[in-house]
Amino acid sequence: MYGLIRNVISVRNEKGRLFVTSFFGHERYFTVDVLTYVTWKLSGLPKERVFGSGTNLDSARFRFLISEQLKIAPSNCHGWIIGEHGDSSVAVWSGLNVAGVPLCEVEDAIDNVICRDIHKKVIDSAYEIIKLKGYTSWAIGLSVATIVNSILRNSRNVFALSTNVKGLHGISEDVYLSLPCVLGCNGVTHVVKQRLNDSEKAKLQESARNLCAVQDSLKI
Known about the structure:
Keywords: Oxidoreductase. This protein has helices spanning 2-13, 15-20, 33-43, 56-70, 112-133, 138-153, 198-218, and strands spanning 77-78, 81-82, 90-91, 97-98, 101-102, 157-164, 176-184, 187-191. It is an alpha+beta fold.
């Protein structure tokens, strides 16, 4: 909690610089979900123009690990990691598909044990890099560069971004979590509402409640 409060203070102190370095008034403060929320509250900008890099990198790692298991190119493995960035992230197994075919129908499909192992590897990958190198830089840098390129080109690509999820998937709180977002020159144009199963939806709602409790404790 001390580290979070320290980062919130940093966001407050850096507001002037953040606005100066933003593209067309977009807040581009890519950090954890709570700090994205804090930035939105302090900025006064519409919610669609404040977003975080969220689980975009996690989703890319997820597709890569799935592709390794199936021996299919990552670009043809369509899967998403949503929710909180980190240990409480949600792997959307119910929506994972290859060329439109659900994973459960793909030949030599992945069993539950391998599923859990793949998700764990996604979560642990950043920790492993920090353990070996001391910090993360290249992967998240490339991910953010791709996101910024989509804004500049108004390409309407879909990214797993940390966005305000109030009103989605039964969430009533003003919290920031990662969901597939269509991104253009004016920020998040809309969120792609996935068909989550009951377990995935419950995990997402639990994350929302946990983040809301943390936000309330900050007294912004």
